[in-house]
Design brief:
Length: about 425
Amino acid sequence: MSRFPEDFIWGAATAAYQIEGAAREDGRGESIWDRFSHTEGNVYNNDNGDVACDHYHRWEQDIQLMADLGLGAYRFSISWSRVIPDGDGEINHSGLDFYDRLVDGLLERGIEPHATLYHWDLPQRLEDGGGWPVRATADAFARYAQVVADRLSDRLASMATLNEPWVAANHGYEIGTHAPGRANLGEALAASHHLLLAHGQAVRAIRDAAPGLATGIVLNFEPKHPASDDELDHSLADVEHARYNMWYLGPVAGRGYPQSGVEASGWDMAEVLDGDLDTISQPIDFLGVNYYSRGVVRHPHATAVPTTTVGPRRTGFNWEVYPEGLGEILRFVHSTEVTDTIYITENGAAFPDAGDDLDDQPRIDFLRDHLQVIHEAIEDGVPVKGYLVWSLLDNFEWAAGYSQRFGIVKVDFDTLERLPRRSARWYSEVARTGLLT
Ligand code: FCB
């Protein structure tokens, strides 16, 4: 039996475009995910987030559900184009009112509100002006951060600038499987720098508007393990580690871009202007760690027989279930001394439902195994202060549409009914007692 610290925060996470719906209501502007998902062939089954979980109308029911489960924290994201429809022009006050009501509703129920400003839904008008490859997008983001901080900071528990900028730049601009669907390495590198710059400028804007608000960033990590002892596998794994795990953490932690990743990408760093790295590396109050799996890296010309292979436990996405990797990542992140407060801002798994069955034992096993690893890391002195399961609800899983179910609460997308799975009851018990058995 493992006992978590008294003050450990237990919660659940979601993101605006994945759950809100109400895509054209109360003045919300178009985002790149509206445009992308409405373009034939981009998303599984041509699904989109027009309705999603209809959380925009059902938010009270959803937060009551969390209160009933005894959760103490909720990580949600704010839709930029709901607040500033064209990204850098007029403020849409009814958009801000929605988040205002949500935050008050959470506090009334004793749930800490943890907001994320950018979970991939760039206003389409900013994309039309060049999107993240363009420097001005970072300025627009800093202003948006300040607008939100002015309105909500007196009641938020924390504010994260970006969610997983690696995915935003890589999937959105390098390989094009996410919005806005561009596939150009040069643009992706420029996007990655402007995302980081946006983070740094936003941290400044938030500190000006709300000096006491805990401010940070959410990054995704996965260990990159060489498949064999072959030198080629080892060096490729090192490069992947640089390009995936260090690309964002390095600059934020004041260590700059990883040299091996810069070289492997052939980046001339023309976008990096004097002072940018100082802007990006301001101290943060917390780092959000998102963890799902590891990568086993095989170079196409390697000849040594693989000794490390992807294990048999897989999720619905066919991702390997590899809890040990979270321990490895936590120790690695801690070693960079980037912060003394780490939250697990996402961790969870998609599994197909067995018919109407709400008995999701594989998800319970997944959560238990990862929580066990977190507990060991805490015992070793890694300052993990909270856990936000991904996700509260089944939702619009980006390019996979509604085909992948991550919720501890099932959503019937015909009726929009919420049906807590057994994992929700199990997690509720862990959250209430702080005990993992
Ligand atoms: C993360 C995203 C989140 C969700 C999970 C499964 O990369 O931040 O929105 O899609 O993966």
